Structures
1.
Amino acid sequence: EAGVAQSPRYKIIEKRQSVAFWCNPISGHATLYWYQQILGQGPKLLIQFQNNGVVDDSQLPKDRFSAERLKGVDSTLKIQPAKLEDSAVYLCASRSQGATWRPHTDTQYFGPGTRLTVL
Amino acid sequence: KQEVTQIPAALSVPEGENLVLNCSFTDSAIYNLQWFRQDPGKGLTSLLLIQSSQREQTSGRLNASLDKSSGRSTLYIAASQPGDSATYLCAVTSTGANNLFFGTGTRLTVIP
């Protein structure tokens, strides 16, 4: 099966500009996650969707970040305006979580990420 | 709040050596613990998943252990190879949440 797709792979912008990232999860996966990974750190959850509804966005800086998952399939993450500290890799992941979630065994599948550099 | 720590931050070993990576977590109420591998420019690949009721999992040259009561896990890599060079991340799924809490990773370099 095809993996999680993300685009673009790399993006360089100046501070105060806007940027958008796109993610297409594995077909049929109901749960979609966006993570931010700053250099030298582990990924940190930004937002989690279940189908097209938000489950957890407590770590999303809502004054500048927004995300949507229309139709419960692909998703976009937007930053407007960008700051220097937003330089990071943005990872998208998906998980099946069908009718029954199996928390002990279900795993997430990650895309290759988008590396954002803010100058 | 769950916090995950990995030691060491970086490790360099000669080819063929056995090695151990360490992970600790503060809240023992977890569903599972996973070890991921991250290569430059690529996403994360799940290596091993240990359920909270399990003590260890093995896959090829990899063996991961879990001591939930003490909040510790180790990843043992036998007979290391240059192709094992990557960053290894430990992550837990806390009870009541269905997202991952990651450690900061260990960057492994295996020298030919």
Note: Chain A has a mean pLDDT of 91.
2.
Amino acid sequence: KQEVTQIPAALSVPEGENLVLNCSFTDSAIYNLQWFRQDPGKGLTSLLLIQSSQREQTSGRLNASLDKSSGRSTLYIAASQPGDSATYLCAVMGSGSYQLTFGKGTKLSVIP
Amino acid sequence: GAVVSQHPSWVICKSGTSVKIECRSLDFQATTMFWYRQFPKQSLMLMATSNEGSKATYEQGVEKDKFLINHASLTLSTLTVTSAHPEDSSFYICSAGDRGAGYTFGSGTRLTVV
């Protein structure tokens, strides 16, 4: 059974700092990996989708990497802003599945 | 991009009553939709997979008679919480999309049973 772990559970940084969020998964047989953002009491917003054959994806100040063999992904946020404060969720889809398995998320606070 | 609309955003109901939550795909057809439940400070837990024109597939431990799912069209799935009790209070989220292009999530429904 796939298990997804996100470390740290919470992170507080000053505005302008670059930061990295970590995601690890136990079964490397994945179809893709998706990073989401969730604001309090809200649904999920998709940030980046990485296919199993890809190493990284970029969108604006966000860069996500994938090392399938080691079961790891990172989300890099450059020049953090207070508006980036949210919970970031990593989700993995198995190669033989249509379902996502989520980590518990990292709660990010960017201090002005 | 794909848009999923979920309604209502929040609902308060009395214990013993039923509540229906709607999930719509606005600009695409969804043969499959997913329903999740999220507890405070926890991740999303998949409850069931909704299949258009057929019965939903429930995850282990989810009572299918309590959480009724109907997926009668390619753009609408509904989750009905029957005979709701305070322990059913939670945040419910639906999703739909394409396996290769990624899934889109609704805005969620906060259910409070009093």
Note: Chain A touches chain B at residues 31-32, 34, 36, 41-46, 49, 51, 89, 93, 98-100, 102-105 (CB under 8 Å).
